[in-house]
Amino acid sequence: MNSSYSILPYALLLALLLGWALSSLDRSITDQLGQRSGVQSLKDVESQFGQGLTVAVLGGYRSIAANLIWLSKNQEWEERDVAGTLGKIALATSIDPRPEMFWLNGARILANDMPTWVVGLENAEQLEITDEGRAIARQYAERALAFLEESREYQSGNPRMHIESGMIYWKKLDDVESAAASFKAAIDTGGAPYFAYRLYGELLIELGLKHEALRLLQSHYETLPDDFLEAMKPVVGDRIRLLKRELNIAD
Amino acid sequence: MSAAISIQGVSKDFRIPGSKRRLRAVDNLNLEIERGSVFGLLGPNGSGKSTTIKMALGLVRPSQGKCEILGNSSLESSARKRIGYLPEAPCFQRFLTGRELLFYFGKLSGVKKTDLEDRVNSLLVRVGLEDAGDRRVGGYSKGMLQRIGLAQAMVGDPELFILDEPTAGVDPIGAADIAAIIREVREEGKTVLLCSHLLSKVETICDRAAIMVKGKLALEGSVESLTAATDFSSARIEGLSAEGRKQLETFAAEWHFDLSTPRRSLEELFLELAKGDGDLE
Amino acid sequence: MKLFLGMTGLAICALASSFLFREFNFGSSELKFIADFGFGGMTVFGSALAIIVTAQLLLGEIEHRTAMTLLAKPVYRSEFVLGKFLGVWVTVACFIGMLTLCLVLALWMRESSIRLDYPEEIEQGQSLVHYGGILWFSLAQVFRIGILCALVTLFSTYATSSIFAMVMGVLVWIVGQLQHVATEAGGVVENLVLKTIYSVMGYALPNFHLFDVGEGLAMGEALPISLVGKLLIYGVLYSVFYLAVATASFNRREL
Description:
The complex is a heterotrimer. Chain A is mostly helical. Chain A has 14 helices and no strands. In chain A, helix 5 packs antiparallel against helix 6, helix 7 packs parallel to helix 10 and helix 12 packs antiparallel against helix 13. About 7% of the residues of chain A have low confidence. A 6-stranded mixed sheet of chain B has the order 6-7-8-3-9-10, sandwiched between helices. The two termini of chain B are 37 Å apart. At the A-C interface, helix 1, helix 2 and helix 5 of A face helix 2, helix 5, helix 6, helix 7 and helix 8 of C.
């Protein structure tokens, strides 16, 4: 027999006091980490996969749970199941919205693959030829853009989301102005890859803003390394010379 | 000088789970154990001996009364610096060797590093485990566990030993060795509180003894006086003077009956008390 | 020892299994998978080890009566409790250290092979994995496990069986992970009884979710020093509190 139980009520009271005292520290850490509540996520998980997965969502295996769902989505992708693939993408991003891969690949599946599934692979050219096909392509491109918009909350400071939006506006919706705005947002965010500058330059040229394009490419050229292929310094240099010739500016 | 163990008005109640009733394991116990003696604490199972020992060691808190060890409250950790305890059926960390175990308890007892190795070696010899000191305790027999238990009780060179069934599971030779160690320890001026069911052993080793029955102290005194019992069924003579005794002896000689006061064993006394709920007939 | 080795083996197997998962994208996705498995192993297996070993270590001594002989020596009960806690915490910290080493090795091996396969895609001197971030994550888990060990130590001081202490440990682990949900839910629900329950859960238990500092650490996300400091303070305060209560509880326990 032991009388240790007698201190439990006092311990609970003290624990509540400590929790209250540390709540501000708790909030400070949460704000710094930028974490979000999991309430909605857990409801989604329970409705789709049952109680067992709830535990897997916790702690270190939250990412793994999301990763496994993402991998399992490949099954629906192979079967060209629009609803199933959409569901898995939504679930993976709700469990763990941090990996950019989920958002980028999800947007690409939405914008590029799903329209083809809807019309059928053998009728893929209809997406560009017929009004109905173009409407389907536009519908899924806008869904992809909305999906990327959702990512802003979790991926602020990531230029790749803006780049992806830019590519969809440009290639799927033929909206050069919005595409250019997206690429500018990517560059302004910082850390944008080299090709973002080149593509932004092309978009500015398409919009007729050649002087602005030249200024952009010239300032970008100064930052490019000489020995890195992906930087494509010679290509940028050639583009600058071409622009100068078009604008009758001496070298 | 204070007594080795002083138990004053100590009672211990335990709550019975699922009931408001309490079980009184020890009831208003008063006991003084003098320094430099071997004291036997006896009683049937459930008489409160182990609870009394645990209160003496501070492992259990008395519900009433106070308990002092060598002048200090038994609840203080410092009181245990000068105690060596051997529990009943001792259990030790199975993965340690006998030597490692003694080193471990030696450090806990505050033995200096410089003295520890010699002390451990001498203790292993003293308890007859010099060949088994490097074997894991998990592989020891019951008798070996008792011996290593006694050694760990001695490692801190304590003033007071509390030994609960020290010869349980030990062969007669081993039991005799342990008894010899207890006598040696007494001759060194230390105090031993001995708890045992082997009453014949207690009778030969102890100076004084107490018998507990149902949580109460039934009898206490020197072993000599406890075992000097009269056969009340034969005669009961009170207040006999020296002159009266002479006349009685003359009368007995005339009538051819034996007037000597026969001794009975402690075991007989114990059984009489235990069966009779603590009352002598 | 067997449990420690068993958990280590399991965690390393889980980490090794991550190599079986191939993704269409090269590089950072695959490395992220490996990192996720490693981090998951640290938190799940580390937490399980902490709960089981703490309960067994303390209650095992009481159940096998070795505690009686120990506490009959001049050993304070607080020393006993603290010693058990530190023993487990250091053991599990070593486990996390070993897993961290294995994870760093696994990521380095895969990163090296990616560099060999795609040399033109990766800028010279650019690292695909932020190894410092992995160390920060491991450190955060050590703080989290300190709190968990202290809690299970507390349960062990009044439990009569190690199973009870383990079950309580698992419950607290789960509820602690959901503590931030309980706190938010307490602010959202209107039912007074539920509100009270959620609020009590929210305040009475530590928020283990804070220590999910982001698996993105391995992929280069920064962790400010101030945040590490706050997590350390949070972890230490809760651990000290639970250990203090555990000591008070054990002082009253009759052996």
